[in-house]
């Protein structure tokens, strides 16, 4: 989504497409489809993942649990880990990973995109690139100093690699207790103008620009249609007696 400036109207029933993390598959699989249909999208990048100095901790856990034959417990384990302070969570992930020999080659779909891929998508005019932290912690599980580093390093790396300052940010995990008022303040200080959560809902006038709602990826065509058409919202309003 290109920010069109305050006061400008979007077309009726406009949809903004977003991708998080910075996987190579966004470029390999998503970008050709965007080009085919002339659709624009925003891709939120975890800067250290693209730099290959940071791995995504949930991916490490996934690979380690699969190697140990415990893949079925992944979802519940990740939910427990997400509740821990970031430093403690990283220790648990590292200790667990040290117990298993992980496969030497990584599945292609788990790879980060290169900065060249990001630049090519940006140059197409169809893709805007935004920030998604540097090492993908849940910001509210970090000290304020660490939150500042995650946000500012991400902003600096994107600016340096892409030749323009990122304006948009997406929170990791993205529920209401995954960021705080202080987080929003740090984002503004770094130069981000808006941030997206993973709290379902439509973007309307008057919302806090640093806590914008977003729908998760639909798993079926039916779910995609119900989200885009407004059927879910209508049901929610009807159930809530008119409250949106
Ligand atoms: Zn993410």
Describe this structure in words.
With 244 residues, the protein is mainly alpha-helical. It has three domains: 17-52 and 112-213, Alpha-Beta Barrel (TIM Barrel); 56-110, no CATH class; 215-244, no CATH class. The chain contains ten helices and five strands. The strands form two sheets. The chain has a three-stranded parallel sheet with strand order 1-2-3. A two-stranded parallel sheet has the order 4-5. The longest helix is centred in the middle third of the chain and has 19 residues, at 144-162. It is globular and about 55 Å long. The protein starts with 16 loop residues before the first strand and ends in a 5-residue tail after the last helix. The mean pLDDT is 92. The structure holds zinc ion. Residues 20-21, 132, 136, 172 line the site of zinc ion.
């Amino acid at each position: 989504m290109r920010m069109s400036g305050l006061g400008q109207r979007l077309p009726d029933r406009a949809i903004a497409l977003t991708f998080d993390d910075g996987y190579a598959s966004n470029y390999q699989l998503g970008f050709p489809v965007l080009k085919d249909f002339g659709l624009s999208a925003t891709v939120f990048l975890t800067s250290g993942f693209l730099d290959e100095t940071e791995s995504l901790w949930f991916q490490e856990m996934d690979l380690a649990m699969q190697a140990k034959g415990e893949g079925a417990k992944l979802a519940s384990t990740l939910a427990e880990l997400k509740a821990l302070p970031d430093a403690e969570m990283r220790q648990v992930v590292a200790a667990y990973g040290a117990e298993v020999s992980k496969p030497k080659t990584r599945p292609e779909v788990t790879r980060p995109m290169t900065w060249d891929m990001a630049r090519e998508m940006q140059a197409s005019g169809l893709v805007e690139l935004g920030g998604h932290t540097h090492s993908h912690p849940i910001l509210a599980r970090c000290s304020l100093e660490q939150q500042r580093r995650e946000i500012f390093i991400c902003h600096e790396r994107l600016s340096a690699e892409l030749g323009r300052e990122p304006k948009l940010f997406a929170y990791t995990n993205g529920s209401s207790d995954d960021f705080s008022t202080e987080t929003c303040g740090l984002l503004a200080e770094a130069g981000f103008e808006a941030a997206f959560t993973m709290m379902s809902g439509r973007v309307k006038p008057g919302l806090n620009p640093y806590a914008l709602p977003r729908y998760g990826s639909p798993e079926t065509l039916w779910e995609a249609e119900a989200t885009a058409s407004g059927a879910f919202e209508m049901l929610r309003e009807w159930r809530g007696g008119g409250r949106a």
